[in-house]
Amino acid sequence: MKSAVVVFPGSNRDRDMIAALTRIGGSAPAKIWHADSDLPKVDLIVLPGGFSYGDYLRSGAIAARAPVMRAVAERAAAGVPVLGVCNGFQILCEAGLLPGVLMRNASLRFVCREVGLRVETTASRFTRNYRKGAVLRCPVAHGDGNYRADDETLARLKGEDRVAFRYAALPGEPASGNPNGSLDDIAGILNERRNVLGMMPHPENLIESMQGGTDGRPLFESIVTSLEKAA
Amino acid sequence: MKARVTVTLKNGVLDPQGKAIEGALGSLGFAGVGAVRQGKVFDIEIAENDRARAETALKAMCEQLLANTVIENYHIQVA
Amino acid sequence: MNAPVAITPDLVARHGLKPDEYQRILVLIGREPSITELGIFSAMWNEHCSYKSSKKWLKTLPTTGPRVIQGPGENAGVVDIGDGLAVVFKMESHNHPSYIEPYQGAATGVGGILRDVFTMGARPVAAMNALRFGEPGHPKTRHLVSGVVAGVGGYGNSFGVPTVGGEVNFHRGYNGNILVNAFAAGLARADAIFYSKASGVGLPVVYLGSKTGRDGMGGATMASATFEKGSEEKRPTVQVGDPFSEKLLLEACLELMATGAVIAIQDMGAAGLTCSAVEMGAKGDLGIELDLDKVPCREEGMTAYEMMLSESQERMLMVLRPEQEAEAEAIFRKWNLDFAIVGRTTDDLRFRVIHKGKVEADLPIKELGDEAPEYDRPQVARPPRPALTEKIPEPADYAAALIRILNSPDMSSRRWVFEQYDTWIQGNSLVRPGSDAGVIRVEGTTKALAFSVDVTPRYCAADPFEGGKQAVAECWRNLTAAGAEPLALTDNLNFGNPERPEIMGELVGAIRGIGEAARALAFPVVSGNVSLYNESMGTSIPPTPAIGGVGLIEDATRYATIAFKAGGEPILLAGAPPGWGTHLGQSVYLREIHGREDGPPPPVDLAHERQVGDFVRGLVRDGLATAVHDLSDGGLAVGLAEMVIASGIGASIERPDGVPALPAFFGEDQGRYLLTIRAADLDPIRERAGKAGVSAPRIGTTGGSELKLGSLAAISAGRLREAHESWFPAFMAGEGPAVP
Questions:
Q1: Three-state SS letters, C515-573
Q2: Residue A123 pLDDT more than 50?
Q3: Best CA proximity match to C616, nearest among C546, C690, C675
Q4: How confident is the model at residue C423 (pLDDT cuts 50, 70, 90)?
Q5: Which of C27, C374, C436, C618 has its CA 20 to 30 A from that of C607?
């Protein structure tokens, strides 16, 4: 699998994402600098986590207007899979590639913990290797993960089976599982064409058993499987 | 020319920071504080002498970057 | 233009210089200093930069070892971990700024320590912090906790380094003077460490990073000033951190270092441009000439005095190979950072500062550092606390006592705190906060590193020498409990006003204790920081020598955590004295149940410590220990409860007849570990303990869902967990949500 990771000034989970993609995709992804206006021909484009441009205006707002994002939007429109994790999700929303917005966590605090993540749809190239309804373990680490959308958008997301992941209680944990107050417990959504996924949790940090689990693996393997089926 | 742009959350959009400030004002003993909504202020110097053109430019800045119009309103004051 | 400022005694005093210190300056330069020169002296000769009160004693600490590449005196210590790699680490305080503006104070503290690490060419891989706040009921405490924790997280999370451990304590002794100690560690190639020593005459001195503003004016002086009422008004001097710029600075510096262009590098921390330039020149036996017209400024009309003392963050000074100047500049421009040649090295050993064509300072560069005053301050040792002679009453209900302790401010879970820190980033965290030590694997090797930060201030207050020993021993023990070989430590010595003999006595006692333990445990001191004058309105903080340690795990698959792994496993108490425990002086039990901080702290037998630790580490390395937990605050009962909470698996403890319950369960005897093993390994391990001369009685068995302390108490894992987890969130929610 040929992939590209877009690096913005302030990206900080780019290295984690590159490590995950290298391990699962078999080759190191291309690193694309935010100021580039061109993207190489790849099977997957990833916007990694971090604090692009310090997130000083709104999370993801400035990155969404970076030169490289025009090319990302064109590829997305052409059907290339685009994955945005954490800050990447925020950027995709700010760029209008996904609907809605990620606001400050309801607690007003940054939250880093392992959450339960329920797979809500397997009808996507990102989730096909999961079992529908399965509850994964996955870390979150963000200050602005509180997903908001208007009623109409929410109804469409649900009606079109575009909620990819919801927060869920982990077995034995008393908490509801929603770490940020997100609307309808939404943790990740797909675009209309189902080739753009934005999600707050970090599957790239759960690839090897040494990291405490491998629940993030199937997400990347799903993309590889999709490519093989398409070929 | 100097301008001030104020960006606030749209009515009906949850504002947890505003809520927290509201609660804190109450606990500091300020009675009678109603709803608090917080926002951002941008003071912008713009090399433009024509008021109308400045306002057009500022509006474009708001639409494209300064505000997320999904959740935020903006207000432009040209000095 | 500035009219020359008259140097009055009052002005000298406001620069923190004593009359005799000013006399020393007059003798040294043979004339009255300019205001800029006075500022430079005040920065170089304050406690923070010169260690004038502590140097005599710091020299007694062991600082070398077979793995030590660089000991104290550079930005951070450097220790060889094999595979051509080195770990670079240090801990530093940001106490006073954090009290005045908790978010920014803590954030810039984290920023400063990260910069210390990557200045040496190391990419930061782990951070920790040691935080001490006033008593929970003090009106400022909640606000300070909220701001400091958010600030630590805000900077570290954005920069992108995992926080792997830390400490949070509450005590009325910190009501007016909190402590924020930040630790960072990075990895570098052992043959590519960068130092501050300049070499070569006529080379460009380059300014990199963010612009200079009036931030933190006199901060280095503030960092050594005692708090008085009204210090809240010092707010304008607090620096503001920009983790985004620091991340860019990290990437730009590492990229530049890889080109071979860097001869010397020093970060601009306290008294930024002054300390960094003087250090680079003095260490390299070179003079430095700075042209302040070239310094990138954020504000207009800055004077030479202001530029030399500004503490704007995220700045670096470097000496570069002139032929690679263009290459260096291109890298910094790419990362959108300022790059300016602001001076050059000279052969005349002068520190010359020129602004608008005028020489604002012209001082002997070596003497600025070398001739700083050094004091042998009078000290009195506190008489040792007498042993507790009366019998400490047993609790009416052991279960209730344990629940109360687990639910107390100091013993409750720190989840509310560490969940605000990114503990996963970089994808290498093997053990995250909540165990004895944080563990990260070392990319590209089969190794892992363990980290822990420790001190027990109430022990130090009762007996600075034993307390200093205990801080080192506990850190060593925590690393050992994870299965790591302790490599070296960094110390952050937080004390009151050294001009008071009893405080000086505490400092000297603690340093002697640290030195003795560090020598006995082969755990050298490779970096550190001294923070004195921590007092408010005449009341000093408890002596708090925080110890940050780093350990090496050769096989990253062989480490231990505190969580029980299965039911039916024997529980051993390694290092147990007869009766399992004996010492109740200064115990958490005494404080939380009887409201007394009394008696001597538990003594540390360093030979015993090492013997037991080596035994436990061996079991972890050989894959024989399934869970390990060191015993410290709260003793055996708390240690067991934490293992039950971490796993949800219960334990039954069978206390033999004749073992008195209270000291067994709540005594804080040192050098003890709880460990679990597979039942089949019991006999060989007993034999192994016997050969090692280590007492390791089996005290019980894992299983069920309750912690049973013999017939005295049976508490469900859920109830233990609820008690442990509930105090902190409830406290922080106490008066409505925190203001952002």
A1: HHHHHHCCCCEEEEEEECCCEECCEECCCEEEEEEEEEECCCCCCCCCCCCCCCCEEEE
A2: yes
A3: C675
A4: very high
A5: C436
Q: Is C740 on the interface with B (CB under 8 A)?
A: yes
**C329: distance to nearest CA of chain A, Å?**
18
Element at A69 (helix H, strand E): helix A67-77
Helix, strand, coil abundance in chain A, percent, nearest 5? 30, 25, 45
Catalytic, A86? Answer yes
Task: State the amino acid at position A45 in one-letter form.
Answer: I
As a whole number of angstroms, the distance between CA C622 and CA B62 comes to 63
Instruction: Indicate if the pLDDT at residue B71 is higher than 50.
Output: yes
Mean per-residue pLDDT, C76-104: 95
Q: Which domain holds residue A66?
A: 3-230
For residue C340, report the phi and psi dihedrals to the nearest 5 degrees.
-150, 135
Domains of chain B in sequence order: 2-78 (3.30.1280.10)
How far apart CA C41 and CA C305 sit, in angstroms, is: 11
CA distance C573 to C592: 24
Find chain B residues with C-beta within 8 A of C735's C-beta.
Answer: 27
Residue C80 has pLDDT above 80, yes or no: yes
Burial class (CB in 10 A: 0-12, 13-18, 19+), C595: exposed
Please name the residue ranges forming H helices in C381-431: 398-406, 415-418
CA neighbours within 13 Å on the CB side: how many for C556?
19
Q: CA–CA distance from A158 to each of A93, A96, C313, C479 (Å)?
A: 17, 19, 47, 49
In the residue annotation, A142 being an active-site residue is answered as no
B16 is written with which tokens? Answer: 């947890």
Q: What is the distance between the alpha carbons of residues C716 and C341, in angstroms, rounded to a whole number?
A: 66
Check whether B20 has a pLDDT greater than 80: no
Q: What predicted TM-score, i.e. pTM, was given to this entire model?
A: 0.93
Which chains would you list as touching A if contact means 3+ CB atom pairs under 8 Å? B, C
The answer on pLDDT for C1 being more than 70 is no
User: For A209-231, what is each residue's pLDDT tens digit?
Assistant: 999 899 999 999 999 999 888 87
Residue C236, pLDDT score: 47
The CATH number for A148's domain is: 3.40.50.880
SS3 call for C433: strand
Count of alpha carbons within 13 angstroms of residue A37, beta-carbon side: 1
Q: C717-732 vs C635-647: helix axis angle to the nearest 10?
A: 90
pLDDT of C224: 44
Question: What is the rounded CA–CA span in Å between residue C515 and residue C504?
Answer: 16
In angstroms, the Cα distances linking C20 to C372, C422, C532 are 12, 49, 20
pLDDT at site B11? 81
From residue C486, give the alpha-carbon distance in Å to each of B26, C61, C212, C618. Answer: 51, 17, 40, 13
Q: Which C residues in the span 707-736 are in contact with B, Cβ-Cβ below 8 Å?
A: 735-736
Which chains are adjacent to chain C, needing at least 3 Cβ pairs under 8 Å?
A, B
Mean pLDDT, residues A140-150 taken together: 96
The verdict on B68 touching C (C-beta cutoff 8 Å) is no
Domain count, chain A: 1
Catalytic-labelled residue, pool C94, C171, C355, C724: C94
Q: Give the number of other Cβ atoms within 10 Å of residue C46's Cβ.
A: 26
Model confidence at C455, in pLDDT bands (50, 70, 90)?
Answer: very high
> C23-42 pLDDT, tens per residue?
999 999 999 999 999 999 99
Chain A contact probe: residue of C163, C244, C249, C722 with most A CBs at under 10 A = C244
- Which of A125-129, C312-316, C378-382 ranks highest by mean pLDDT? A125-129
| Contact criterion met (CB below 8 Å) for C740 and A105 | no
In this prediction, residue C101 has a pLDDT band, given cuts at 50, 70 and 90, of confident
Q: Do B17 and C740 touch (CB under 8 A)?
A: yes
The fraction of chain C above a pLDDT of 90, given in percent, is 82
